[in-house]
Structures are given as C-alpha cells and as structure tokens.
Amino acid sequence: MDMFDDLLTSYLEKTCDAESALLQHIHRETYVKETKPHMLSGHYQGRLLAFLSKLVSPHRILEIGTFTGYSTLCLAEGLAPGGEIHTIDNNIELEDRVRGYFGASEWHHAINYHIGDAVTIIPQLEGPFDLAFVDADKKNNGRYYELALEKMRKGGVIIIDNVLWKGKVIADATDSQTLQIAALNKQLTTDNRVDKLILPIRDGVYLLRKR
Question: In terms of Cα–Cα distance, which of 46, 13, 10, 48 is closest to 27?
Fold first, then answer.
C-alpha cells in the first residue's frame, strides 16, 4: 500500500518550509552512498519533526536511531537555549560522516552522539527528557518505548516512526516485523500512561504524550 504517491508528496513538500542547505546535502549523500536511503526521514517528515520539537521547546531530546543524522538536526531545531540532544545508533561505519554533518551544523555543541546498543545506553543517560524519537530496528520498539517512557518527564512527547509499515498493519501480512509493529500498536492503544494518536504521515508516526 502506497501511503503517499509521488505527486502528493511533491505537493506537501512545496507547501512546507524548505530544507536547509546542510539537510539537502545530507539527503543527497544518503541517496548516493547508502543502500537503504529510504530510512532517511526526508523533507516533509523532517519538517514535522522540527515543528513538533519547536512546539515542545525541549531542553533534552532522546533519539533512538541516528542513521545519517538528518532527523537529529531536524529535532535539534526546537531545542531550548542550552538544550541538548542524545542520539544513539549502532552503525559505527557511518560515525565519521555523521560527526562531520553534526560538526557543520549550528547545533554541533548540543549533540551527543552515542555509538552502541540503545538498550544499554539509555539507562545510563541522565533524565528527564522532554521529547523522544524512536526510529531504529523495529523488533525492539517495545523495549525502546518502555526505556524512553521511563526517562520522560510528565507531559513529555514520544514519537515512534514506521507504525503503519506501508499499510501492512491492516493487511493480512504475516511476516515477523509486521506482526511486531501491529502488536505494539495494539498494546499502545490501551496504555493508560500516555495520550496517543497515529498520524498517517509517510510510513505512519505515533505520537504519545506521557500523562
């Protein structure tokens, strides 16, 4: 199921703010150098992340899944003065290039880039966080969510990406990833610790606010 065709995506991108030159550069290099460039948040979703971050005005952001750093920089746009973002990824091969992107940004001083297992790293981070973005390996989303929720302040917002999984969650797909994503979505609908809402943007974005 194609959630958004190319024509609609092009229209949406034309009606929101433009990417910065650095984000355009990261976008281009990701599509040239990476085998799975679709994992990049991209222009429209990146503007959503920046918009949500600006609404929250977070002092501390947690990101699980850095990839090439595009979403990190979008989230950083909303940081309150003196704020910081902790972003975690296990792909050491991307580290030098991503650190270069971060170093070229105006938020280079605010970004803490961790390489390793998020399940191990998150408990070691000092909380509370105001905003979290979960966009890593889907099989561990439930663990990432619980770890992030534990670190969130009351009223803090958690964003989980890819929760519609190209529409497979409402199809008869039986592959393990689809079943895991659908199971977590079902679990979250009855989680009384949070307010929740799925936005049918790109591949589905779950917004959760800690009560």
Answer: 46
